[in-house]
Amino acid sequence: MRHDNVRRGAWRLGLAGLVTVLAATLLPAQAAAVEPKPGWGTVSAEDGVLKASCRNYPYSYSVTAPEDGYWDLSVTVIGPGGRDLWFGYLYEDANPASGTAMFRLCRSKVRPGRYKLRAIVSVQDGDDNIAGRLKTDIFHLRKRR
Question: Chain centroid to CA 22: how far?
Fold first, then answer.
């Protein structure tokens, strides 16, 4: 009996791993396929200094999606090498339609350079879920002088 439970647990872990790998592979392609909707909001981050250790950096957001339905905002920070470094999620019931939020970067894992802030707004109206890509913001983090 115990042997069957171990085998079943290993199978579940294998399946979970496969789902994680597929999601990581498909999500960037999915984001590129989302129709641009620049009128649905904005995201922006200021140029700044890449701080020592792990630190929070502010970014501003504003969601002006259509009034019908509930919105959520998925935000990704993309590093100088094109690699996704951070992912955050804001949604209507817990966040105001505009404000400031934070992303976290660790200096030991990133380098100075050009960063991108990419965002997708999703609006759910009943059974329909419509997504729109906001204009990508570009900002720079430089070395401390």
Answer: 17
